[in-house]
Amino acid sequence: MTVALDGAPVGCPLGWVGALxxxxxxxxxxxxxxxxxxxxxxxxIAVDLDEERVQLSLAATEHAELWGFLKRLRPGxxxxxxxASIESFGVFVALDDGPGHPIHPGVGFITHPDLSWRHFDDxxxxxxxxxxxxxxxxxxxxxxxxxxxxxxxxxxxPFQAFADGTAPGDTLRGCxxxxxxxxxxxxxxxxxxxxxxxxxxxxxxxEELGVVVTExxxxxxxxxxxxxxxxx
Length: 232
Description:
By secondary structure, the chain is mainly β. It is 12% helix and 39% strand. It contains four helices and 14 strands. The strands form three sheets. Strands 5-6-7-9-8 form a five-stranded mixed beta barrel. It has a five-stranded antiparallel β-sheet with strand order 12-11-10-13-14. It has a four-stranded mixed β-sheet with strand order 1-2-4-3. A hairpin with a 4-residue loop joins strand 3 (43-48) and strand 4 (53-57).
């Protein structure tokens, strides 16, 4: 949606409100209520010199208190709250400080990868509704009006501790946790799993076996293994 900005001289960039910046509520309802010629008040969220347009947000003025709260947060800040809802796409957290959300059960949101360093099949294995949590603030999700959080960032990464004392060529023992089309995963210590490629002998979940470290990548948290021959 393009907007003619008040006071802008001829030839200056137009304002632009994207579909995701219209509202944090039901977007179809809000879009249907807008008409050509209608006056609006929106906040500037970006200036695109290449496209020659000013990015605007109606959600910012519609929920000014919440927008202001989220803008004041800084990455790395520690926030506390209560788990309000566990969904298939992530976990909502009702923060202790700041206003509530107009649609969601909490202003804080944790994606599944940011719940724990350890592998899990169900987020309920990590947190429960009503549980108190302390998380690290990552960024302001302007599309949904959320404070993106990380629970795992508040605890040490077990992979880095594992890597401190491990090197390619080391022999370890572990338990098979998952079989996939391209191989299977082996848990070598709590919170650390490595992939044994498909070309190695097939294993079953729950099997314990010896493995050799073939690749260890700290930055990508990647561990590749090779199964050792079974004892006769």
